[in-house]
Structures are given as structure tokens and as C-alpha cells.
Model the fold of this input.
Amino acid sequence: MNENRIIQRIKDGDKSAFEELFKLYENKIYNLALKWTGDPQDALDVSQEVFLRVYRYLPGFKNQSSFGTWIYRIAINVCRDAYSKNRDETLSLDGEEEFETQIPDVRYSPENEFEKRQIKEVLKEAILSLDDAHKAVVIMRDINGLSYEEIAQALEINTGTVRSRLARAREKLRKKLAENGNFFEAGKSNNSEETHDKEGKRS
Done:
């Protein structure tokens, strides 16, 4: 409700209200842009463009979706416009929010710091190798923590598409890491599950 009041104040001509809205979303949009571009200055440029578009188009915002969904949609579009999937950048995964996803246990010795760093570098490269559609859902879900519904609204697709894209993106990341010997082969766990299923059926 507070957010809606701020938006209404902006529409009513209260310029100071936009500063309040900016503070609510400044870090969220910057972090999304940083994960996409991998460069602080580029992320700042993207953020500025996002808020310029918000300022320009907010009078026409009809509250048909949440404001958060609307601004994330703008942010993804700006990232897509500004940076192609083949841009040679390094994705930063440093900070409190590490990449969390449903992937097999990592195969490395806890004491082997070199291998830990190697895994992170491979993961960065794997995310950068994704096309825009798959990169968007991975960043929004696994890094920014948006719900399937929020992602669907932001990207203007249905939740089923979000889930399928996320599954494909995670599978690509698994394969990339497996190629570098960092993950257990998925087939091993699958085989044990299949055996368990068969035994269950026989019983």
C-alpha cells in the first residue's frame, strides 16, 4: 500500500516521491544489472536507464501488474537491448547472495581452495553462455529470488514456460560443470533412482 501511495503521489506531481521510489528499488535493479553485465559501471548505466524509463512511463502505469513486476520487465529489456548474449564479460557472483540452484552435490575436497575457485569460474562462464531468455530466468529466480509468477509477469510469459526455461538453463549449467569434472554425473544418481523405482514396482 505504501508503494501504491508513492506512485500516486508521483502521478499527482510530487517530485520528491520519485526519490522515495528510487530508494526502494535502487539496489534491486543495480544488483540485477550487475549479474547480467558483470561490470559495475555498466550496471550503473543500466540502472540509470531503467529509472529514466520508469520516470518517463510511470504516468501511464495502470496497476495491471505490481510495480515490482513492471520495473523488472523494464530492467530485463534494458539489459537485453544494451548487451548481447555474446558480450565478453565476466559475471560477478560475489556477495551475500551466492548462486543457489537445484544441482547435484559439488565434487571437490573441502580443503581444495583452488578447485573451489575453478568451479566458480566455470559457473560464471556457463551463465554467460546462456541465451538471453534462459539467462533472464536464472538470474531472476536463482539469484534475485523472484517467484515463478513474478518472473512470468515480468517476462510476459506463463509460469509453465518459466519452469521449462529454468529447467533447461539448469541442465545446461549442470552439463557445463560436468564437462569440467566439477559435478557427479547425473546419470549415476538417475540410475539408482530408476533401480529403486523398478524394485518398488516389482514389490
About this structure: The domain at 91-188 is CATH 1.10.10.10 (Arc Repressor Mutant, subunit A). Residues 196 and 202 are 10 Å apart (CA to CA). DSSP finds nine helices and no strands in the chain.
